[in-house]
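Duplicate of #3305? Posting structure anyway:
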């Protein structure tokens, strides 16, 4: 919400010596010798990976921050999140999920290359939950990857630029940006749905043998991958609360979670 103390935190950060960057180009020009950086590339969230231009990609941010954090050879902890994988899965958008996962994978590769070069860096990759209950195959147990490669836009973009009420125009847009043809039954499903965007995502998924079980978070276990010193501690099934405990132990600290003194009644 709007601040009620009239403070401009960006200007305050500048006064305290922070370099403020807001574009991909500005980030690329930041020197590795810089110490204090405030990088805000959007008023809210970044554009989807599939259509991002002026804003940096996740791997570019990781490259730059690793340059800066490693310049003095001091220990550091860095958390990187590919948050919009979750958003696209909420929309049951296979193209959006694919593009976001590829972007995240590139960021992981940057981290692994850094760790391989140094030999003293632990890289952990996991998720806080699964979303959408994505199923890769249906019927003949084959995903039509070639068709997915022809997708050019997210369902969010389509619904923002075309209306299912204009059936012919909407149908042509799907043919142009997805290479697929919607039947009259498909169009009826979309127009009658409480959430046309998600219904479109499910229909497109069906046409490439991809299925979804929910539009929310699922209870499916998520993997934990680790590489580097201490990676052997991240094996088997772990409760998510164990991950920070192990990290703290490896850094020489302990972590004690607070206990509620009073039962939660509301």
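Output from current build:
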């Amino acid at each position: 919400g709007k601040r009620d103390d009239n403070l401009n935190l960006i200007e305050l950060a500048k006064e305290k010596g922070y370099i403020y960057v807001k574009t991909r180009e500005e980030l690329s020009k930041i020197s590795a010798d810089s110490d204090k950086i405030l990088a805000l590339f959007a008023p809210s969230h970044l554009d989807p990976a599939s259509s991002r231009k002026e804003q940096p990609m996740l791997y570019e941010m990781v490259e730059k921050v690793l340059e800066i954090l490693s310049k003095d050879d001091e220990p550091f902890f860095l958390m990187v999140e590919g948050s919009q994988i979750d958003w696209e899965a909420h929309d049951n958008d296979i193209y959006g999920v694919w593009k976001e996962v590829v972007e995240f994978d590139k960021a992981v590769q940057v981290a692994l290359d850094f760790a391989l070069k140094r030999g003293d860096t632990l890289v952990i990759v996991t998720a806080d939950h699964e979303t959408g209950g994505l199923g890769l195959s249906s019927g003949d147990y084959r995903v039509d990857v070639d068709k997915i490669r022809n997708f050019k836009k997210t369902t969010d973009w389509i619904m923002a630029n075309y209306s299912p009420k204009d059936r012919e125009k909407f149908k042509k847009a799907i043919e142009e940006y997805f290479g697929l043809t919607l039947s009259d039954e498909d169009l009826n499903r979309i127009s009658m749905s409480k959430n046309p965007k998600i219904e479109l995502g499910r229909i497109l998924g069906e046409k490439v043998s991809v299925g979804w079980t929910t539009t929310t978070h699922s209870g499916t276990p998520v993997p934990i991958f680790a590489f580097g010193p201490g990676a052997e501690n991240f094996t088997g099934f772990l409760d998510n609360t164990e991950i920070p405990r192990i990290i703290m132990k490896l850094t020489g600290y302990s972590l004690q979670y607070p206990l509620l003194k009073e039962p939660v009644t509301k």
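Confirmed duplicate; merging threads. The radius of gyration is 22 Å. The longest strand covers residues 19-21.
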